[in-house]
Amino acid sequence: MNRRQDSGPWWRRGWIFATTVIAAGTLIGLSVPMAFRTEPANTPITVRTTVQAGQLMSAPQVPFAGMTWRDYHGVLLPYSADNGPRDTENDLATGFTQTPRGALLAAVHITVRANMRWGPKVFEPTIEDQVIGPDADALLVAAREAYEELRGDRPDGEALGRAYVVLEGFRWQGYSPAAASVDLVSAGPGDSEVTVRAVTRVQVQWQGGDWRVVGPPGGTWAGSAAPVDSTDGYVRFPGGGA
After folding, report:
1. Residue range 18-30: mean pLDDT, rounded
2. What is the pLDDT of residue 238?
3. Measuring CA to CA, which residue among 173, 163, 171 is closest to residue 231?
4. Which InterPro entries does the entry link to (predicted)?
């Protein structure tokens, strides 16, 4: 287990929670940045390169047969008996297969659980054990700071409540058995009851017998997320996801 020391800042009041998936911002983590609502849909996304582009297949097929959707504090998440997560004890999620579907499931579950909304019993072990890369420490510190700022009068360690977000779809940037990059689309309520969508780029690496999420640049998902008007061009999640 890799316990990290506090260092570095993160996003705070500029986001409304939607959940997760990430991004600890949009989803998958997941909240939708308020600033995104006035920016064009082609806002650039920043990524942390994990492998050479030539090592990635562009768009592997991901079958949805046998996948079920279960409520996770207000967010419907996909589960597969074959591809993971195999262990969901203590509200965490580990054990994904080294396949495209396993990578996709890991990206969703790890990013969602890395959100501070579920409290330190969930986000701390998720980030400490399942987020890797040079910006993982900053992500952990940011989550701790955001949690302390938002918990108010709640007892220390208590979750901040249910989320209101829907995972709508995804699009591969690339996949290999060693690493993958995927864009995840999530939707949540915005101002004046308008639905707000965002796409968050999540990268994963196969390490230590399981998929790990690569921490976003600077420990914030803001640079890895952008507004999106619709799910056109993305693979729609079936059933509970969309």
Report:
1. 37
2. 87
3. 171
4. DUF8175
